[in-house]
Amino acid sequence: MSQTQIKLKSNPNQTQTQIKIKTKIKNNNLFNNIIYNSLIEMPISKRGKFKMILVGDTAVGKTTLINSLNGVNPQNTCQTSTIGASFSSLRMDDYTIDTWDTAGQERYFSLVDMYFRNVDIAFFVYDINELDTMESIFKKWIPRYFECREKYNDSDRPSILFLIGNKADNPELQKKANQSEYLQSKQEYILENNIHHFIVSAWNQRNLNILVKELKEDLTVLGQKIEKETDEQAVQIHLQKMAKERQQMKPSCGGCV
Fold it and tell me: Which residue blocks in 117-179 are alpha helix, DSSP H?
């Protein structure tokens, strides 16, 4: 049986996913030029874009933290309590991180569910000077996160989790935070759930460079995982769709016997 000849349509703006789909289709020899070219022009999801959420009790410094990561000096700004959630876009190298800074007041707790959906990165922030804010992370915020993953069928979705102790404005405070008995009792849980733990000061940016370095490294790995899964899904979906269209294009035999 002769193979179908497919003329590859050049497009310098094609993404890696489009190129992989192109190769897959060519190897399957299923499609003619018209169907093939229409497929290649179909838009593919953007690469290097992630969704991040910051959660934790009120006044632990979530907004100050995201402002510091965005290059805004918190010492020159006046912070107010977040109402509901606030959105910002964070740039890190080639990555764009859509960030949702959620309110920590109890009356807004039920609203957090919608922001947990399709999350790639979660920052669980507590105040190292307030033990109850750390306890709240393990008793309320992290359990709610895992509940929402089940609720939205996100359990298999790769994600990055950070436990961030904030307001370690000097070395002594950081040392005291690391020696917390409650924190030590949660080390096994932290390891089991692959949670990164950092103690920082969003106010004077202490240890933020270490946090950013880890986040960038994790984003590279996460991006590769998501791209691989997206490519495989895209190939299968488009192959199925094009095969169906090709089947529909076959001429009917009418009353042939």
Answer: 131-136, 142-151, 171-178
Conformational region of residue 192, where left means phi above 0, alpha means psi within -120 to 50, and beta covers everything else: alpha
In the chain, what are the domain boundaries? Answer: 49-221
pTM for this one?
Answer: 0.72
CA–CA distance, 165 with 65 (Å, rounded to integer):
11
Q: Please report, in tens digits, the pLDDT of each residue of the chain (257 residues total).
A: 433 333 334 444 444 544 444 454 444 444 444 433 433 333 333 457 899 999 999 999 999 999 999 988 877 676 677 777 889 999 988 889 999 999 888 778 888 999 999 999 999 999 999 999 999 999 999 999 999 999 998 888 889 999 999 999 999 999 989 889 999 999 999 999 999 999 999 999 999 999 999 999 999 888 888 777 766 666 666 677 777 777 777 665 555 54
Tokens of 239: 């192959």
Instruction: Compute φ and ψ for 130, nearest 5 degrees.
Output: -130, 100
Q: For 49-221, which CATH superfamily applies?
A: P-loop containing nucleotide triphosphate hydrolases (3.40.50.300)
First to last CA, the chain: 25
